[in-house]
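To: structure subgroup
Subject: Chain for Friday's discussion

All,

I'm putting the inputs and outputs inline so they're searchable in the archive.
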Amino acid sequence: MTRQRRLEIKAKYRESHREKLRVANREYQARIRREQPDRARDADIAYKAKNRERLNEYERNRRKLDPEAAREACRRYRQKNLDQQRERARLYTKLHPEQNRAAARRRRALRHGATGSHTQAQLDALMLKQGGRCADCGDQFSPSTPPTVDHIVALSRGGSDSIENLRWTCRSCNSAKYNKSPLEWARIRALRERC
């Protein structure tokens, strides 16, 4: 019997006994997981690393086909691993303070119904343009005078969240300006400088 013929017979057998082989394979996998959990874990890790792109594509398609089921699976996972999720969120917040502040700014802008948006790269470019100094008092930013993002026309007064309406100011200038219009703030600053 030739090699080709043996392969044809095996393929025909697998095709006609597909379900039986699938059940036997599941039983074998379950037994290996029980008896040799380290080996099974290592095999899982190796398989996922080797097939990462294919698995990601499968997951994307599954989520597209049934988004509600995917959301429900995420909810169940979060509920089951609540402490782990909270710890992960705390760690992310600690390691990425700027992204956390950016998310807070986006939430605040949405709450006020502001139009426009900006990116972190645009804010970084604006910081370079201002030379690392407060747009109001001109102080150099440092740990004792940390920078804050100020909306020139306040969100509460209908200002945009686009980069054209933003500037970097120190915390004291931003707090003092609060939600005043640029004209009101210029008058107050002029009065302060006279005194």
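Points worth raising on Friday:
The chain has a mean pLDDT of 91.
The first strand starts at residue 147 and ends at 151.

D.
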